[in-house]
Amino acid sequence: MNLIILDPKDIHEGKVLITGQKLEHILSHIKPVTGDTLKAGILNGSIGEGIVTEISDSGLALALDLQNPPPSPLPLKLILAMPRPKVLNRVIQHAASMGIKEIFIIKTWRVEKSYWETPMLEEENLRKQMITGLEQSRDTILPVIQIRKRFKPFVEDELPEIIKGALALAAHPAGKIECPRGVTSPVTLAIGPEGGFIPYEIEALQKIGFETVSLGERILRVETAIPFIIGRLF
Description:
Layout: E1 4-6, E2 11-12, E3 15-18, H1 20-30, E4 37-42, E5 47-56, E6 59-68, E7 76-81, H2 85-97, E8 102-106, H3 123-137, E9 144-148, H4 151-162, E10 167-171, E11 177-178, E12 187-191, H5 199-207, E13 211-214, H6 222-233
Parallel strand pairs: 1-4, 7-8, 7-12, 8-9, 10-12, 10-13, 11-13
Antiparallel strand pairs: 2-3, 3-6, 4-5, 5-6
Helix pairs in contact: 2-3, 2-6
């Protein structure tokens, strides 16, 4: 935890009392003492420091000075075919830590129907994973995650508006063009499931303006592909 993210409703007159699991984590990993200064931020708000004023059975009290803006968001929207549930948490954490603020989790032909039954898609879990990623990267702005279980209506009715003004790229093993480097414009990036998009899906994406790009000779897992591509693009 590189940043303690605080709920605005818990802050009163520039002070906060931390309890529960967050307190346990801080005491176990950071091990502060009275007078220490900790990095803190308000969820969806400013960042700064908190001075430990008291540690007791009631909790850990911080006097806050939060005046700095969070890091700038990454100029990238992520279109993500639903990965295996056990991978989803890691992907969401990584995406949040890299500054991605808009994520669409979509159904594609190779996504197994059973994946949609996982409790990991529940709002509470997604929020937990996003906050974990934000704490890692010292950011406070929650991404917006939207779920779309019908590929064709999403691509035809919504995606053309989403990609307006952006470079639209679909990572695909059979792509003939290398993923670009040093991009200065906003990007909308589509990542397929294990095995990639099927030809119909690639054609549908190309029809609305996506360019298919290759990541090279290696086939990467989705949790590896996302940071790899972002490292190349920006």
